[in-house]
Amino acid sequence: MPLASAFGPNSISLHSQATSFHEAVTFAVGNLIADQAVTPDYLVDVIANLESLGPYFVVAPGIAIAHAKPSEFVLRNAWALAKFDQGVRSGSHNDPVQLVFAFCATDSSSHLELLAEFANWMATPGLVNSLQNASAESVIRNLL
Amino acid sequence: MKIYAVCGAGIGTSVLLKSNADRVLQDLGIEAEVQAVSIEQALEDQSPAQIVLATEELVGKLAGIRSEVVPVRNIFDLQELTEKLQASLG
Distance between CA A102 and CA B12 in Å, rounded? Predict the structure, then answer.
């Protein structure tokens, strides 16, 4: 399944801790860097987005998707997830944020299928609850 | 009819929003073209969109445009999207 394989070996962190949303986003994008899906410059773009547009990528209650435009800093299409048990405040209506996904795409067309699949996956009834309650990486891998 | 799904870059959140809006419109039997766009595109004077779907954080930046702006709280909640699109189009 493409979505499952887009989550690399270092892409999922549980029981993460952050004192700010900025730090939480940095953590999730750090997983993409660890999987060599992006270079560290991608994080600079993501943080610039966060600072200029506000926490707009908090897309649903408790869920954020950190991302920036395709660029030379993206090496392959990939997803990552950092889960914050205590939740993090972003200043959004959807606080506290527990699930911080990070996403990167090499170009603006090839990743559409992957994103559509992600949207379908997230719209599955009960899925968000299962993700929020997951206490082991294997549980999340199985949900993929 | 044209509907824009908006996010900062036009390639991440907006694509997720488009994907679920397409699904809801199909279920409602409404024919409309949903396009994922950047916020700059939604702000253009010549924007052909009748409706602009945007997460609540971006709504303030869209004030004053010609299109009807529909704030979406949870882009993964098909029920919410159904209700809001029905209210705008029904």
Answer: 10
Looking at the structure of chain B, the number of domains it has is 1
pLDDT in tens, A112-132: 777 888 988 998 889 999 999
**Strands of A58-60's sheet in order across:** A7-16, A78-88, A97-104, A63-66, A58-60
In CATH, what class is A2-128? Answer: alpha beta
In Å, how far are A6, A127, B27, B68 from A139, measured between CA atoms? 16, 11, 32, 41
Tokens 């730090």 — which residue?
A23
Residue B55 in contact with partner chain A when CB distance is under 8 A: yes
CATH of the domain at B9: 3.40.50.2300
Interface test with B, best of A50, A59, A130 (most B CBs within 10 A): A59
Helix (H, G, I), strand (E, B) or coil at B51: strand
Note the ipTM here: 0.73
Q: What is the mean pLDDT of chain B?
A: 92
Task: Give the E-state strand segments of A17-77 in sequence order.
Answer: 58-60, 63-66
Contacts of B12 in chain A (CB under 8 A): 57, 65, 67, 103, 115
Cβ separation A93–B20 shorter than 8 A: no
Q: What residue segments make up the domains of chain A, in order of their start? A: 2-128
- In angstroms, the CA B54 to CA A26 distance is 24
